[in-house]
Input
Amino acid sequence: MRERTAPYLLLVPALAIFGILFVVPLAYFFVISFWRMLLFAMKPGFSLVNYEQTFALHLPTFVFTLYLALIVALLTTALAFVYAFLVRFKAGRWGPALLFIALITLFGGYLMKIYSWMTILGIKGVLNTALLTLGIIDEPLPWLFYNAGAVVVTLVNFLLPVAVLPIYASMRGITDIELEAARDLGAGGWRSFSDIVVPRCHTGTMAGFALCFLLAAGDYLTPQLVGGKVNMIGVQIGAQFGGIYNPPMGAAMSFVTVGLSLVVVVVVVSLLAQWRPR
Amino acid sequence: MNRGASIAWRAVGAVFVVFLLSPLALVVLFSFTSRAQSAFPIEGLSLKWYGEMFADANFAPAFWNSVVISGTVGLLSAIVGTMAAMGLARLEPVRAYLVTVLICLPLMLPPLVLAVALLSFYSKAYVIPMGRQTVILSHLLAFLPFVVLVVFARLRNFDYRVVESARDLGASPLRAFFTVTLPIIRPTVIGAALIAMAFSLDDFIITYFTIGKGMTLPTFVFNMIRSALTPKANAVGTLILLMTVGTTQIALWLTRYRG
Output
């Protein structure tokens, strides 16, 4: 008896944290998404008005956010695949160093990376200074900064390590024996890449894509700091808990964001499920 | 592989390294400039922005908050995470998998949604006032899964015969844990806790929404960036990078070379 209950006893603290700090808050958050604001106070009740308002007021923002997140996630996943491929098959003794760089950049400096892109892309930024000094341009390029492109570059930069790790983890499972067997059976380099490497990395690639998409679609800081007038849903959600103060609305917007993001992820993953480069 | 392809791959690798590292390198570089802007040309090297950082009245409390929060998160997540991993290791594989997925669910939400949901909960729950304690609880929820995953992975290739011998020789389960199991898995546990600490030190979004009135180093920098762009933000940023990269370094060294 003791041996049977022991595993669950050991799991009690972790499950308590999960229950009290995740299940309960999210359930409460879901409930208040049906409440209303009345004279700056939340009023319990059941109304779908927040969801109606979410679509009525923010539909263009949602469409744009999901579109931008899709671009970012596809770009990041593709680049991460190349990076993982480089580490696993092409870099030789530099492989561990490249992997190490991906790990270091994964852990260090979410905010500092965004800040750094402000100093790189800004009107007096590193890029403009460099181009001016080299004589390639005569005047600073204003279009480098405060637009969707700057948001994409910044998001790709900090999401790249997030996508590299799962893809590399699944690529590491491919043994040289499999590839040699394919070659002995007459497969060329491209054939063994499309028929062995890509399908074997499928799980890791899809995990990388899903993570990047969810993080990009829900990002709060990047559009604020480098996006200028770029309006993403995360900024709007954050505002419901600050200046605007309408938590029920923010809750409804959060659930719609997560729901729509999951729909996009499921659609893309199932579209890519059977895809092979030819 | 022919020579041209090899050079091409090297070039690709170099571009990636520059893309990944230059933003961080620039943060550090501009923290030492003597000018008032984080921009080229750097006319002279100076430590004055670090002086400005230390002179800021908000710096010491923010630094102390960061240390207390990440330290507590590291310690608690090590204890709770190791217990959970030991529990998982004793479950049947299918059940262990299901419980792992459950514990990892908070990682599937965008941090912003987690942050505002927790904010709504804390501001309603009355029991616990917002401050360091609410940030610690939120970070524990968000970063505990990493500790569980890392320690559980270590336990999967753990030789249980040594624990069984200890038990056969009369050690209680607790004694067997502290004298046999823990010394063997200690580097992994510490490494995993340091990973949680690095995430905690670096976190902006969850902290920003759940701390109430105080500040940590990242939210301190954020206020600075919003008001004026001076290399003072680079100095604080360099300190944050030093702390997160430092803890990560030790963590990697512990989990990879010893664990």
